[in-house]
Design a protein that fits this description.
Elements: H1 4-29, E1 31-35, H2 40-50, E2 54-57, H3 75-90, E3 94-103, E4 110-111, H4 124-134, E5 142-153, E6 156-168, E7 184-186, H5 198-204, H6 206-219
Parallel strand pairs: 1-2, 1-3
Antiparallel strand pairs: 3-4, 3-5, 5-6, 6-7
Helix pairs in contact: 2-6, 5-6
C-alpha cells in the first residue's frame, strides 16, 4: 500500500518531469535566427526584444569572419547585402538591419552614411561633432531615425521598417546608448535616447519599432 507521502512524492516527480519536458520541447522548437552583426550595442538592444521568442546567434558566435558589404545607396540595400552575405555562407534563416539618421536641414544627410559620416574609422563623437558643426546656427533641427530590417526566411526576403521623429539637440546629453543617441531627442520625449534605459528606448526607438514588426510577422 502506498502511503500518502509516497503518493505526493510520485506526483511531485511526475509533474517535475512534465514541466522539464515542456521547457525542453520549447527550447528545442524555438526558432533560431542569425543576426548579421557583431555590434554589441545592437545585440544588447535586440536580444531582450526577442527573448523567449527567438534564439539569436551573432556572427562571432558562429565563427563567421570577414567584411560584410555595405555599399548600397539605401538602407534597404545595405540590409539586404548583409543578410545575403550570411545566408550565402550558412543557408540558415537570418536578418540584418541598417539605420540612418536623416536631418531635414541637411537634405536627409547623413542618411545611409550615418555610421561613417566623419570618415572611415571615425568614432561616435567624431560623427556627432561634425553634425553639430553642420547645424550651427540652424533653426530647423528636425530629424528622424529610420531602421530597415531584411529577413531571409527559407530563401524569401521580407522587409520591416521603423521610424522615430525627433530633434537634434545643440549639445550632447547622457552617456547611454550609442551612435547619435546623446544629441537625438525623440518627439514627445523630454530626454534624448542617451538618457533612457534600454526598456524605455526599445519602446519608442526606430529599431524597436522595426523589431516589433518582425516579431509580429514571426508570430504568424
Amino acid at each position: 500500500m502506498f502511503q500518502t507521502n509516497d503518493i505526493f512524492d510520485i506526483l511531485k516527480r511526475f509533474f517535475s518531469r512534465l514541466h522539464f519536458g515542456i521547457r525542453l520541447k520549447k527550447q528545442i522548437t524555438m526558432k533560431e535566427l542569425i543576426f548579421a552583426t557583431n555590434n554589441k550595442h545592437k545585440l544588447s538592444e535586440v536580444r531582450p526584444l526577442l527573448e523567449g521568442k527567438v534564439l539569436i546567434h551573432s556572427l562571432s558566435e558562429l565563427g563567421l569572419e570577414g567584411d560584410i558589404p555595405e555599399t548600397a545607396e539605401t538602407l534597404e540595400g545595405n540590409a539586404l547585402q548583409k543578410a545575403e552575405w550570411v545566408y550565402q555562407r550558412t543557408g540558415r534563416d537570418c536578418f540584418a538591419d541598417d539605420t540612418g539618421l536623416e536631418v531635414d536641414a541637411l537634405g536627409g544627410a547623413p542618411g545611409v552614411y550615418s555610421a561613417r559620416y566623419a570618415g572611415e574609422g571615425c568614432s561616435f563623437d567624431d560623427n556627432m561633432d561634425k553634425l553639430l558643426a553642420a547645424l550651427e546656427g540652424e533653426e530647423n533641427r528636425k530629424a528622424r531615425f529610420r531602421t530597415v530590417i531584411c529577413l531571409i526566411e527559407n530563401g524569401e526576403k521580407h522587409y520591416f521598417e521603423g521610424v522615430v521623429e525627433g530633434t537634434i539637440l545643440a549639445t550632447k546629453h547622457g552617456t547611454g546608448g550609442f551612435g547619435y543617441d546623446p544629441i537625438f531627442q525623440p518627439i514627445d520625449s523630454d530626454v534624448p535616447f542617451a538618457e533612457m534605459d534600454m526598456r524605455q528606448k526599445n519602446l519608442i526607438s526606430h529599431r524597436g519599432r522595426a523589431m516589433a514588426k518582425l516579431i509580429e510577422y514571426l508570430k504568424r
